[in-house]
Design brief:
Radius of gyration: 21 Å
Number of domains: 2
CATH architecture of the largest domain: 3-Layer(aba) Sandwich
Main location: membrane
Shape: globular
Helix content: 40-55%
Structural class: alpha+beta
Subcellular location: Cell membrane
CATH superfamily of the largest domain: Periplasmic binding protein-like II
Oligomer: single chain
CATH topology of the largest domain: D-Maltodextrin-Binding Protein, domain 2
Pfam families: SBP_bac_8
Protein name: Maltodextrin-binding protein
Region (Disordered): 33-59
Length: 447
Amino acid sequence: MKLKKLMVLTAAFSMALSITACGSNNNANNNGGNAANATNAPADNATTDNAGTNNVSSTAADEIVPEDGATLTIWESKEERPFAEEISKQFTAKYNVPVKIEEVAPPDQVTKLSQDGPSGLAADVVLIPHDNLGKAASASLLLPNDIFGEETKADNTEASIVGSSYDGELYGYPRAAETYALYYNKSLVKEAPKSFDDVIAFSKTFTDKSKNRYGIMWEVGNMYYDYPFIATGGGYLFGDNGTNKDDIGLTSDGAIQGLKTFVKLKEVLPIKSGDINADIKRSLFNTGDVAMDITGPWELAGYKEALGDNLGIAPIPTIDGKTAITFSGIKIFGVNAYSQYPNAAKLYAHFASSKDAQLVLNKLIGSVPTNNEALQDAQITGDPFVSAFAEQAKNSQPMPSIPEMGNVWSPVNAALPEIWDNNADPKAAMEKAVEQIKDLNNGAAAQ
């Protein structure tokens, strides 16, 4: 296969050491930002206090001060809003800068920033999956992480720094590592299944569509969660370790074979892809009507509350005898290049991604930290659930961060429902998706 084995092993090993894991499916609320922050050009780093130095000590937060009259707007996910509310309260108490929170799904934020940034309607600080960084950075939508750059690099895992960088420059402030795993209800499933054959065998004894009861459920129309069926047998998105836009591996023999296994699961999950979303799945799992759920750490706090000691988490089951490979990535804060208050925005991004903030995020949401000291904290090392995500991270691949990654989602997320709902041939559906991706890539290059 074109994605060299060495590259895959290197990425997986890096992820394992760094406990790096991304993506999410949050509901968007497209409220605008603070119009009072309107500006016709990106903020000039040279005019910010103490900007431009890459040799910053741990006292950088004491040396930079918010602009007079600064107020901030922050974009945050719906599921993680409790964290934003707590951290914003602490930030305002320390720096006397009011913070307004608006709910926008992280995968939607770069597109919204490109539309609203120049007019001053966007948030000052955005939260994005690292695979969207290339699109944002290449369009000059974000300010580099300069004042806190060296501190950020020293404090966080190597993989999270790579994910927060584009074309050799650090832009992001990493706050959480994400992949997904298999949640299961121990009162229904005595032992976590080792393979998807085991999943099918159990589900045949449990699934009853007439009672809205299913052995397993996940968002079958979402490439993020379906990636194991593409990658485990050797498929991939872009070659050369995710950097070659002209080498697309979605129609490789390994990808198509994995998608045939994907189709087999329709027997035990006999519902349309459009009838599965995060809210439906969550409700059914909490009530015991779904025995197993494939999702990420953002559901951990709620599932622990609902199931208590009956909650278990395990790596994704094997596919065709091979260890499942998931997508992984990180969520990063970025500072809007058009912010009227870049000092205050950089302070917030740094403050909200610190060791203490990442531990708060873990406590409230269940996320996996990227901060090295936080990873060694007893709160993390003593948590069997976080450890399960770390185990899956050993067999994960970071999502490509080149701008063309943004061209993948719509075509593939259209092909998967065709395969699942309408029995489309996997190879034909993926060939169509690849052509659409290539057209989008060439169109983007021509602009």
